[in-house]
Amino acid sequence: MESRDRKIIALRGETLGTLTPQSSAEEIFQNQTLRPILKFQNDLFIQVFINYAVKQKNVFFDLSPEKKLVYIENVLQKDIKLRNLLKGMIIAFFTSEEYSVYIKNSSNLNKRMMNLLIERLRSQVQMLEK
Fold it and tell me: Taxonomically, which superkingdom (predicted)?
């Protein structure tokens, strides 16, 4: 496992965001683990979302820019299958130690994960085209 963990950390890169002595354990996990994984997996998240939108009868592509932002948030909050797929894409890049931390506080960390992913997709809405 040690070899896998080292390779994963090297692959996804350095901590993103600022850590201070006052940072909570969740903030540290977010900046050391979640943000680098989200950045690393970004292109794949975009492809997955586009594929999802196409399978949903292309409704997303005809929306105004403002409604697209709302659509992204609603879908990621309400479509359990899509949420689980995206969570799996993130969790797959956890080290063994990070997974141990995650399972102790999965509810709060899942919220952070989805909020970060929603913001990431919303900030790149122009890339979400067929």
Answer: Bacteria
